[in-house]
Design goal:
The chain is an all-alpha fold and 165 residues long. It is built from six helices and no strands.
Length: 165
């Protein structure tokens, strides 16, 4: 359930992030691409470290809790960002959480079920990930009309300069 809710909260804002970053905050598309490459690199490298730590520490759960907590704490702050660099910093912390939790969480799942049921457990986990990844954007489609008055989704909010590198 944590995985479902985490993906839901991530995917409800992720489709809007490029527009917010470029049209509202004035960041360039090139900076947006650089940010996404950087944050995914951070997450991937931290997965290596956290996997090693998960094998060495007596308890894996603290890394998982820390990872999910970091993401949950910073994700709402993205909407309060006033400059592109703030979004970059918050996304780095968000993906740091992903990097910290991934490998220890998988080890906890493997440890928590019988050997013959691991495929079912990992399949259920991935299903919850995908359900959250679908439910988030679908929910946002219904919320957009409620927030159009704020100007973020107003027609013409984007200008030609928002698409130049």
């Amino acid at each position: 359930m944590v995985s479902l809710l985490n993906d839901f909260s991530s995917e409800i804002i992720f489709p809007l992030l490029p527009r917010f970053f470029t049209a509202v905050l004035g960041g360039s598309p090139a900076l947006l691409g650089l940010m996404e490459g950087l944050v995914e690199s951070v997450a991937s490298l931290l997965k290596l470290w956290s996997g090693r730590m998960a094998d060495r520490l007596p308890r894996r759960k603290p890394l998982v809790v820390l990872g999910y907590s970091l993401a949950a704490a910073v994700r709402p702050l993205i909407g309060l960002a006033a400059a592109p660099w703030q979004v970059v910093a918050l996304r780095i912390v968000d993906r740091t959480g992903k990097g910290l939790r991934g490998s220890p969480r998988d080890a906890l799942i493997a440890d928590g079920v019988k050997e013959g049921a691991r495929g079912h457990a990992f399949g259920f986990h991935r299903a919850m990930d995908h359900l959250g990844a679908i439910a988030g954007p679908v929910t946002m489609l219904f919320l957009i009309p409620l927030f159009q008055g704020l100007g973020v989704f107003a027609p013409g909010a984007l200008r030609e300069r928002d698409y130049r590198l």
